[in-house]
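Proteins fold reproducibly. Next comes an illustrative record:
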Amino acid sequence: MRWTAGHAFPTENEIKNKIHPGMTRQEVVRSLGDPASEHRVDARTITATYIPALALLEKMEPGYIGFVVNFDNGVVRDWRILTGEPSYEPVTAGQRLFKWWLIIWPSLFVIILIVRWCLGVPAVFNQRAQMLAAFTGMKIARRLPVDFAFITHETNLHEVFKRTGAWTREINFVVGSDEVSNYPLMQTKNGAPAIRTLVYDLPNSDSLIVMPEYPFEDASLIRAVYLWPGGAGADY
């Protein structure tokens, strides 16, 4: 028998109960299985070593790791326990499964997060590009929610606020001048070029982004309105 994760290796107590001087080699093998190795010391003496598979040495402290049986003329003369670190401690199949689950589940969770992030990053960049294309092309989304259907290029930002209420958040969205065909831009507090965007988070989880004309003030006319499917992030 090979001592693997699928076969329980004899415990120290089992050894004490099952081995006794005078047993034949066949009786020992029948009771405890085949040894990992045997060494003939001389014509009369054979040493049989029993150790589990390395995968079964899971206890990270000194302790029992196997045993050695000495045979004289084919019968047990004596035996001794082997110790080391890591050591062997019997674990049931259920305990081992639970242990591996504790290891695998966090790893799977991390992998899922990484995959979702990798899938999400291209989507965010694609939505960003479409939003800037709407701004450059002066496009107002065709299917606006009822409360926003009044918005045209003749509507100013103050009227939007008056009729729809305060936006969810306002973001000075940093862009490169080449991304908006060299359209005049404002500057953030850090001096970065940007456009002013007003975000309304909708009940269906989408975000409606209102973008006024330069100089991006409350009296400025609406240049573009973009619907961001699934909702725009905190800063896009």
Q: What stands out?
A: Helices lie at 12-18, 25-32, 93-136, 157-164. Residues 127-228 form a domain with the Beta-lactamase Inhibitory Protein; Chain:B, domain 1 fold (CATH 3.30.1450). Confidence is low (pLDDT under 50) at residues 1-6, 119-124. The radius of gyration is 37 Å.
